[in-house]
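Suppose you are handed a protein chain with no further information: no name, no annotation, nothing but its sequence. What can you learn? This example shows the usual starting point.
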Amino acid sequence: MKIIHTLILMLILTASVQAQFVEKSTTVLCLVPSATAAVNTLARHDRRGLLQLALSSATCIAVNYGLEAAITKKRPDGTGQHAFPSTHTAAAFNGATFLARRYGWQWGVPAYAIAAYVGWGRVHADKHDWWDVLGGAAIGTGTALIFARPFAAKNADITFSPIIGGGKYGLSAAIRWF
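A reasonable first move is to predict its three-dimensional structure. Written in structure tokens, the prediction is:
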């Protein structure tokens, strides 16, 4: 009987440690898509993109905090009155949507995976309900869609070359960004 009690205690402790890990990891990971977007705009010398990211992020946070102040919803774990919408999820989806819209799906897919984990993690850690997370995701996605525009390199060099030989004909195209 003592072994069963010990195993139950270990499971409870393991679940508690897991919940703490998930909560802390979502606090860090919610910033990764936006930080990646910022580094990407700086690396590409994309001033217009940096401005779009700043406007998108500022609007996202302003709308989110405005709704939190207007809607006093208790957190599922009882630790506060500002559960709706989820700020962590809004920030994550804002950065992910910016990356996807500005730089393409190659950047968007991993960022959306992180954003989805953040949303799931906030519910798993008992900080939000699914409605809170969906509200945050909608705000983050919406604000990024309003401000972000696809990136077009100003200094792009496009080269077309004909392919002729061995009874085969075609066209080769190459794009180089400076």
